[in-house]
Amino acid sequence: MSTDKQNLSSLVWAIAEILRGDFKQSEYGKVILPFVVLRRLDCILESTKDEVLNVASTLHDDMYDDARNQILYVAAGDNVKVYNLSPFTFEKLKGQDPRQLHDNLVDYITKFSGNVRDILLEKFLFTDQLKRLNEGGILWSVFERFCSIDLHPDTVSNIDMGYLFEDLIRRFSEISNETAGEHFTPREVIQLIVDLLIANDDERLTKRGIIRQVYDPACGTGGMLALTEEALKEFNDGIRVELFGQELNAESFGICKSDMLVTGHDPEQIAFGNTLVSDAHADKRFHYMLSNPPYGVDWKKYQEPIKTEAKTMGFDGRFGAGTPRISDGQLLFLQHMISKMRDDENGSRIGIVMNGSPLFTGGAGSGESEIRRWMLENDWVESIIALPTDLFYNTGIQTYVWILANRKPENRQGKVQLIDASSERFWKPMRKSLGSKRREIPDEARAQIVRIYAGFMEAQGEEDDASRIFETVDFGYREIRVERPLRLNFRVDSERLERLAEQRIFAKLEEDRQTGIRSALEKIGDGLFLNRDEFDKLLTDNLRNAEITVSAPLKKAILSSLSEKDDEADICTGKDGSPEPDPDLRDHELVPLSENYQDYMEREVLPFVPDAWVDEKYTDPRNKQVGRVGYEINFNRYFYKPVPMRSLEEIQTDILALQCEIDSLLPNFILRTPKVEYDVMKPRIYVDTSVIRGCEDVKFRKYSRLLFKAFQQEKAIMVISDVTREELLGDPENVAKIPDQVPKTQTELLKETEQARDLANAYISSGAIGSAHYNDALHVAIASLGKVDVVVSWNFKHIVNWGRIQAYNSVNRKLGYPEIDIRPPENIYHED
Question: Which residue of 37, 369, 499, 689 lies most exposed, with the fewest beta carbons within 10 A?
Answer without folding.
Answer: 499
